[in-house]
């Protein structure tokens, strides 16, 4: 084995041990100590302790001041909740997205609110011969996409302020990068319950989006239709607006929202 292969092997074993420690901590609701971890994983207590300290520093595990046991940390809880929310939103969106596409013929998209932007989690292609849409896994901006604007408009004032403080990238000449104008648009979006972004993410493209709420009553995502601006106008038709809003409300109810 070469030096490089040996280093790669050591690194891989370290990753495997770290993941094994996390699994043991998760499976022990009342916490687990260094000795038990070392015995369960067949390694030394000093090695376990080093890994645990790194996990504590990163927020993945937590140790009470008066205890020798390690428990699940806030960062790991947050990741787990994100996965749960993501899967729940995907399941809830599947049939409504299909119905929305079948009713209007445009590509239908569902996205999840994340700190970085709107994560596209599900899409249904439109019926046009030229496919217009976005890829699953894409991150849409808060200011240059209809999904991002509608989710931001229904988020807290603090979240809106954070979006407006950040650098607002100019994707096209039509992208709104003025914090003042965006703040005014957020107010309009909140009153009407939907948002558009004609030519703002890409020239010739428009999206109409409405917010999705979870069981806690907080905005967690958005659903929308995507097509060329000649088919989804800057001022959408009443049918486009009502069907998109109804789809968002349907998904919200499936997530437990009762508002």
UniProtKB/TrEMBL annotation:
One GO biological process term: negative regulation of DNA-templated transcription
UniProt keyword annotations, A-Z: DNA-binding, Transcription, Transcription regulation
Domain called IclR-ED: residue spans: 75-257
Keyword DNA-binding: yes
Superkingdom assignment: Bacteria
Domain called HTH iclR-type: residue spans: 12-74
GO molecular function, one term: DNA-binding transcription factor activity
One Pfam family per UniProt: HTH_IclR
InterPro entries found in the cross-reference section: GAF-like_dom_sf, HTH_MetabolicPath_Reg, Tscrpt_reg_IclR_C, Tscrpt_reg_IclR_N, WH-like_DNA-bd_sf, WH_DNA-bd_sf
Name of the protein this chain belongs to: IclR family transcriptional regulator
Annotated source species: Aliirhizobium smilacinae
